[in-house]
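> call design_seq(struct)
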């Protein structure tokens, strides 16, 4: 789904800023896992609600519209408040803001039960909006908080590690969600709205439990108020172009993930039942996890260049093994079982991983160049998924996750470069652009309704063409000022 959002806190923590905060950081990384998990649950939820309410693809795309629309609305409100009277989270404290956001998430999840009882699709959309409100506040608060839990020179490393936990959540969610909705809580093997009540009440309980853990934890405090920022971050072209890139990236990634289950279920691709197809979403989101953690190594300045290839190969192999085991989980006749695919079936995905690692090599550690190469790689994969059939189409579509992996962090970093005192204001504007995730599923759904689900995978191509251009434009800008690495 979209990755860590890097913002800068207005003040330093009053305690423990440079001391040992391993325990506090471990607690905060749970937040990244949970919001990745609950966000990716939408990819399982869309086909479930589509079948339950007999929706068109366009109508089912309203799930993402409600969820990611909240990011825009809440971030916009937050931006105006920050400009007018200072950062509200800095005033109330990051720990309290995180607790509040988790309680809001729990409330949104809890509303799924009455929505199912009322058999109301708009009710579900309202619950999703409330849930996403909590996730938005959580992202605004947790990212800068994670950044200051240790020495400043290692802030990026900490955020990359936390982002890896986010990807772990997005990888597990389709597997757990598919089992819960289509197997464990299905009524007599049939999809009914009652199947959604218990899973989301469980999620509500998990968010409340995490809120309690955060509330009672002795986390370093951030004190002091934040002054309103002067000037306008929109004066910087790298930010303006970067906002468009974030909008297109988040929109494309979310749209692809939203319709992958329906894509895999199509008779010309694999023809799988939706419960089986949902398991394979783990390769899309797990690919993002592989790419992010390998990218952290590829773009690191502290790891010896000759050691990077070995570390990246070992990381990719270990994570692929994790995904392989996770997707073997089945729930049949009331029992959990393991049903492994033949290892040879992973050859196409392994080849894509090798190409992804090679693309890092082509980029030579330069964020703009890597972004450009990855953008064009996804263009090729989307063309293949729309033109080909069977397993070629399957792995081409799933492989897009590998190359989506580093886009958020690279775009975000390139966009806020040289913003100086306008960095936090620019960060708020970039967060707003997550609204692309609300709009693109509707566009892709409309294409699917009118032309077919496979043809719909051509729709995001223009996004990645622009992203590739932005990467190369940004790298030329860095080269021009002598900051290329």
């Amino acid at each position: 789904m979209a990755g860590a959002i890097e913002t800068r806190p207005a003040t330093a923590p009053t305690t423990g800023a440079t001391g040992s905060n391993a325990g506090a950081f471990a607690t905060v990384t749970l937040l990244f896992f949970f919001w990745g998990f609950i966000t990716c649950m939408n990819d399982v939820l869309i086909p479930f609600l589509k079948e339950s309410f007999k929706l068109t693809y366009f109508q089912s795309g309203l799930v993402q519209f409600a969820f990611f629309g909240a990011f825009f609305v809440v971030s916009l409100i937050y931006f105006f408040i920050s400009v007018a009277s200072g950062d509200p989270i800095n005033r109330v404290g990051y720990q309290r803001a995180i607790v509040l956001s988790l309680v809001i998430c729990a409330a949104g999840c809890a509303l799924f039960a009455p929505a199912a009882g009322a058999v109301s699709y708009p009710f579900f959309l309202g619950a999703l909006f409330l849930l996403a409100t909590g996730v938005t506040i959580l992202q605004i608060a947790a990212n800068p908080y994670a950044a200051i839990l240790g020495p400043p020179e290692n802030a990026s490393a900490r955020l990359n590690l936390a982002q890896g936990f986010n990807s772990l959540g997005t990888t597990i969610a389709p597997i757990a969600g598919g089992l819960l909705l289509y197997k464990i809580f299905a009524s007599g093997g049939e999809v009914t709205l009652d199947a959604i009540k218990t899973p989301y009440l469980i999620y509500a309980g998990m968010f409340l439990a995490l809120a309690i853990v955060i509330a009672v934890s002795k986390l370093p405090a951030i004190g002091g108020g934040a002054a309103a920022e002067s000037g306008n971050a929109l004066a910087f072209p790298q930010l303006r172009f970067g906002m468009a890139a974030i909008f297109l990236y988040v929109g494309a990634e979310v749209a692809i993930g939203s319709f992958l289950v329906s894509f895999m279920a199509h008779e010309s691709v694999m023809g799988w039942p939706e419960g089986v197809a949902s398991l394979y979403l783990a390769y899309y989101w797990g690919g993002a996890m592989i790419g992010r953690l390998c990218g952290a190594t590829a773009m690191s300045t502290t790891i010896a260049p000759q050691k990077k290839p070995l570390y990246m190969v070992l990381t990719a192999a270990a994570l692929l093994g994790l995904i392989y085991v996770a997707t073997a989980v089945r729930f049949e006749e009331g029992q959990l079982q393991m049903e492994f695919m033949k290892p040879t079936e992973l050859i196409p995905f392994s080849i894509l991983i090798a190409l992804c690692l090679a693309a890092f090599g082509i980029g030579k550690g330069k964020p703009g160049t890597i972004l450009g190469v990855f953008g064009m790689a996804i263009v090729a994969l989307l063309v293949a998924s729309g033109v080909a059939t069977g397993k070629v189409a399957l792995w081409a579509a799933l492989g897009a996750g590998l190359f989506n992996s580093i886009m958020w962090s690279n775009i975000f970093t390139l966009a806020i470069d040289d913003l100086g005192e306008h960095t936090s204001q620019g960060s708020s504007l970039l967060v707003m652009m997550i609204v692309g995730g609300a709009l693109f599923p509707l566009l892709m759904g409309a294409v699917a309704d009118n032309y077919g689900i496979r043809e719909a995978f051509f729709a995001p191509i223009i996004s990645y063409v622009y992203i590739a251009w932005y990467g190369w434009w940004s790298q030329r800008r860095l080269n021009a000022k002598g900051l290329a690495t």
